[in-house]
Write a structure and sequence with these properties.
204 residues; mainly alpha; 10 helices
């Protein structure tokens, strides 16, 4: 595995996207465990895109306008749903601890996973990204692609966890007033809306 791949993958993971925003939001409001759950969900959400790129299904996503549009608008709808729910004080990103911790963590991980699954750009990205770092002389190119994808997922989990832990630390010290919570919800909701609109305008 080349140093070029590791550096490129790290840069890609570090750039804030919907997964990072979600993880940070959850960390701010619900603390460290919830942030880790979000990081796990975002990481698992990469699996379908990675498998699709390995078996060639991503090529269908890239060439079929209908499939791309269906997944794209499902992703847009979900991001707008998250934005709407975030605005609600009792929504899934409620900035306070939940009574049923286990159920809350599972819901957090599920939402994070769906954010990546419903992003067709991620599948197309893997189709273009992974093959670049597989040697044409490789005896088992599929295994190499899976290995590279696994390393990318490990980086995603590590970086997102760091983002989430930092957000949780800030949340413990800052989010003490209803006014701050209200503006935080509005900011996060606006961010999700922006990502949704950007996805809606995305082309293959």
């Amino acid at each position: 595995m080349s140093l070029e791949f590791l550096i490129t993958a790290l840069i890609v993971v570090l750039v804030p996207g919907t997964g990072v925003v979600y993880t940070v939001a959850v960390g701010l409001g619900k603390g460290r465990q919830a942030a880790i759950a979000a990081a796990v969900g975002c990481t698992l959400g990469i699996v379908p895109a990675m498998i699709a790129s390995v078996v060639g299904l991503a090529a269908v996503m890239h060439t079929s306008a209908l499939v791309f549009q269906v997944v794209k608008y499902a992703g847009v709808a979900y991001l707008l749903y998250l934005a709407w729910q975030t605005l609600k004080a009792s929504g899934p990103l409620e900035l306070k601890a939940d009574k049923d911790a286990r159920k809350s963590l599972l819901a957090t991980a599920r939402s994070a996973c769906l954010i990546n699954i419903l992003n067709p750009k991620l599948t197309v990205f893997f189709l273009a990204f992974l093959p670049q770092f597989v040697s044409p002389l490789a005896a088992h190119p599929t295994i190499e692609m899976l290995l590279h994808g696994s390393v990318f997922m490990a980086m995603t989990f590590a970086v997102f966890t760091i983002y989430g832990m930092f957000a949780a630390m800030v949340g413990e010290k800052v989010l003490r007033s209803e006014t701050v919570m209200l503006w935080m919800r509005r900011t996060i909701a606006a961010t999700f809306t922006g990502f949704g609109l950007r996805l809606a305008l995305a082309e293959q």
